[in-house]
Design goal:
binds ligand TH1; 19 strands; 47% helix; 13% strand
Length: 764
């Protein structure tokens, strides 16, 4: 009764009540914190999806992005809150600026995990993400002297209240040399008009941020203090690599303990664990959950062979890459030091495999005593999936072919997806409103309905699409000027490549294009319209060549900007500290989506889907999910180039690729590479770094940029020409938006559930 009275007196959402004073008297920070508490209560009131069987999605990364507006949208409170604040002369957008972005992931793998939790919540599936509460997560990137600098991103340490709630659970994890205790933090993951999922993050009680002294460097031997300070501590030395193994075991042991305790609580006798839990192993970082679960089951009186079968029925593994460097393989001596209790279990699993299969490729422990985590995952789980059709096919036919012969029924594909709540409704509200007006709002729950847009294609609709794109470009221009002082021209073509920096993603190919375009302008060959090439990328701190690419991009940006003729036609911009928040500003403003990985190397990509949904056209190789995009939109609505994955795989197998011959035979390649060491570039940058990059390209070029160079230039030129025919271009954009429905993570999650998890949706 008293509550009802307060409610009526308080007409509106209750912001003032949460703030303890009228909205007008609050600082922005007070309002932000009031909203955060209000949202947390509203999410709690919805409750979490329940069911006998629960998904545990275990992952080293959850790149969740800012939560305030996303939660307001999912809880159906956004409009009300915005209006109420506006009525008091305040702006929700300004409050959103105050929120710091949790840096709990580094790229697609972590963002995928976040999209999946959103979709699980929305589809009513009982699901938890399990990971680590990194204090500083991934580093913050800044540019100094045209180079990347890394500083700790202390996203938790300022006045903003936390989305994390401390749970009452405390566990102990025993390492070989000492024990630690852990605390669990929960974040509610709201679904779109549904109950919640949960993100459950473990921290070690002994963590000590004072260990961080100089930038992101710290004494990696102080394991108990340093364990959860950073995501992916520098692994260029053994100390760093061992610290990663400590982190992984800490995550897995906590997860395994939690899962068994919860399932017993729900009524499991552990022998029937598979009726209560589905564990999805997100790439190999959580692989130690397999021996850890077996260990705990045996400890509880279950025989080894039975425990192994139980764990196999519970666990499923997702492979996200074929890159050899990412396939984790730990020396047994590391495991012996970190978690000696699981070593005999791994040895026994290895012996089992050895008994039934002699093929060296599939053994868990190799002849050098290295433990191959992916091999353990495939033998000891009931499902192995790739993340796009082409990727799964390459796993089945090439990379994991011997496993496929052993377990044909375990292999399956789950093409990645993205949540349309964050990647359209929240980040491109004008486009979402246009879609609502045109086909109704059913697409918000059933994304395939977007196809109906095609029935409404006319000049008016295409005109509105163009106008929305233009306003998004203006908004991006305002944002980037405030963010880093860069001025960009919304009239120009926005040509965007944003993703982690890696040689296989081939930012260097785009860089060579930009140099070629610059040299062309100098020689009097002017483009049809100004092009703004926008990069967003962080390089791993120990990845030298990746940092060289960033350096060359920043130097080129300076050289072009200083040229009074060229700067009218070309601009190179690199976004500082590219993250989810920057992506939300950038993607709705893009005209061209660069997806130019070396065919066969990008398992899926998910940025490609976000750009497509926001009406950018793809310029890409036939790699990862690009292949599926091409199939959906048709050849006329995508720009593809380059060697096929079969050709690339054959080239690697022949081992006869010689970049130097391309450099010598192709004038444009030679001119672009030579320009890296030109007077202007050397004046802008560091000769060592530029020289190392030029040398790498000429002598190694492991990801084969040169064979695709001419085709890339030609296709990009064709695309820039097409961009000048506004009506035809917008009609292609419309097809892309209309066909994006397939890439909703709701579809992906429904498939995981149908084929792998078999959870019952919470009906009410
Ligand atoms: C990415 C893949 O590169 C990308 O193609 C895919 O869309 C995404 O995962 C989601 O499936 C990966 N990120 C990582 C990060 C680490 C190790 C392996 C991969 S694969 C640290």
């Amino acid at each position: 009764m008293a509550d009802a009275v307060t409610q009526t007196r308080d007409a509106g959402t209750g912001i003032a009540r949460y703030a303890g004073k009228p909205i007008a008297n609050c600082t922005n920070l007070e309002l932000f914190n009031a909203l955060l508490r209000m949202v947390r209560d509203a999410a709690q009131a919805r409750g979490t999806n329940q069911g006998k069987k629960r998904l545990y999605y275990v992952s080293a990364e959850f790149l969740i992005g800012k939560l305030l507006s996303n939660n307001l949208i999912n809880l159906g409170l956004y409009e009300q809150v915005r209006a109420e604040l506006a009525a008091a002369g305040r702006s929700l957008a300004e409050l959103e600026e105050l929120e710091s972005e949790p840096s709990l992931g580094n790229g697609g793998l972590g963002r995928l995990a976040a999209c999946f939790l959103d979709s699980c919540a929305t589809l009513g599936l009982p699901a938890d993400g399990i990971g680590l509460a990194y204090h500083c997560g991934l580093f913050r990137q800044s540019f100094l002297g045209n180079k990347q600098c890394e500083t700790p991103d202390g996203w938790l340490t300022w006045g903003q209240e936390s989305w994390m709630r401390r749970a009452s659970l405390h566990q102990t994890v025993s390492f070989g040399d000492f024990d630690v205790t852990s605390t669990l933090y929960d974040i509610d993951v709201t679904g779109y008009g549904s109950k919640c999922a949960r993100l459950r993050l473990f921290d070690v009680d002994s963590a000590d941020e004072r260990l961080i002294k100089d930038g992101i460097a710290f004494d990696k031997r102080r394991v108990a203090q340093g364990l959860t300070l950073f995501l992916y501590p520098d692994d260029s030395d053994d100390e760093g690599r061992i610290l990663r193994v400590y982190q992984e075991y800490f995550m897995c042991s906590n997860a395994a303990q939690l899962i068994l305790a919860e399932c017993e609580e729900r009524g499991s006798n552990l022998r029937d664990l598979a009726d209560y839990a589905a564990v999805q192993i997100n790439d190999t970082h959580p692989s130690m959950i397999i021996p850890e679960l077996i260990r705990l089951l045996v400890q509880r009186g279950i025989a080894f062979d039975e425990a192994r079968g139980i764990v196999r029925d519970v666990c499923a593994y997702t492979n996200h890459t074929i890159l050899a460097e990412a396939l984790e393989c730990w020396p047994k001596s590391f495991l012996q030091r970190v978690a000696p209790q699981i070593v005999p279990i791994i040895e026994r699993l290895d012996a089992d495999v050895r008994k039934s299969c002699k093929e060296p490729f599939v053994q868990i422990v190799d002849e050098h005593d290295n433990v191959h985590m992916a091999n353990m995952d495939i033998h000891l789980s009931h499902s192995t999936n790739g993340v796009a059709a082409l990727h799964t096919k390459i796993l089945e036919d090439v990379e994991l072919a011997p496993f496929r012969r052993l377990y044909p029924e375990r292999f399956n594909n789950k093409t990645n997806g993205i949540t349309f709540r964050r990647w359209c409704i929240a980040c491109n509200p004008e486009l979402a409103a246009l879609v609502d007006r045109t086909i109704g709002d059913g697409w918000r729950h059933d994304a395939t309905q977007l196809e109906r847009l095609l029935e409404h294609e006319d000049d008016a609709l295409l005109g509105e699409l163009a106008a929305i794109k233009r306003r998004n470009k203006e908004r991006f221009a305002t944002w980037i000027e405030r963010h880093q002082g860069a001025k960009v021209d919304p009239e120009s073509v926005f040509d965007v490549q944003s993703k982690r920096l890696h040689e296989y993603k081939r930012q260097q190919l785009n860089l060579l294009w930009a140099i070629d375009a610059y040299l062309g302008i100098k020689a009097g060959k002017l483009p049809r319209r100004k092009v703004t090439v926008i990069f967003g990328a962080k390089a791993a701190p120990a990845y030298t060549i990746a940092k060289d690419v960033i350096h060359a991009i920043l130097c080129l940006s300076q050289v072009v900007a200083a040229d009074p003729v060229a700067n009218k036609w070309l601009q190179i911009v690199m976004i500082e500290n590219y993250n989810v928040t920057a992506a939300e500003r950038l993607i709705p403003a893009a005209d061209i989506s660069e997806q130019i990985s070396l065919a066969s190397k990008e398992a899926s990509g998910t940025g490609n889907m976000k750009f497509m949904l926001n009406g950018a056209l793809t310029l890409g190789t036939m790699d990862g999910a690009n292949v599926e995009i091409a199939g959906l939109v048709g050849a006329g609505n995508i720009f593809t180039f380059g060697e096929s994955s079969d050709e690339v795989i054959a080239r690697y197998q022949r081992g006869d690729y010689d970049p130097m011959s391309y450099y010598q035979d192709d004038e444009r390649i030679k001119a672009a590479v030579d320009f890296l060491l030109s007077h202007d570039m050397l004046a802008a940058g560091d000769g060592h770094s530029l020289d190392r990059l030029a040398h790498e390209l000429m002598c190694k070029d492991w990801f084969m940029t040169f064979p695709d160079f001419d085709a890339y230039l030609a296709e990009k030129d064709r695309m820039l020409e097409a961009a000048e025919d506004e009506a035809t271009w917008q009609s292609k954009c419309l097809v892309n938006i209309a066909k994006a429905g397939f890439f909703s993570s709701d579809r992906t999650i429904a498939e995981y559930n149908r084929d792998i998890w078999h959870l019952t949706p919470d009906a009410d």
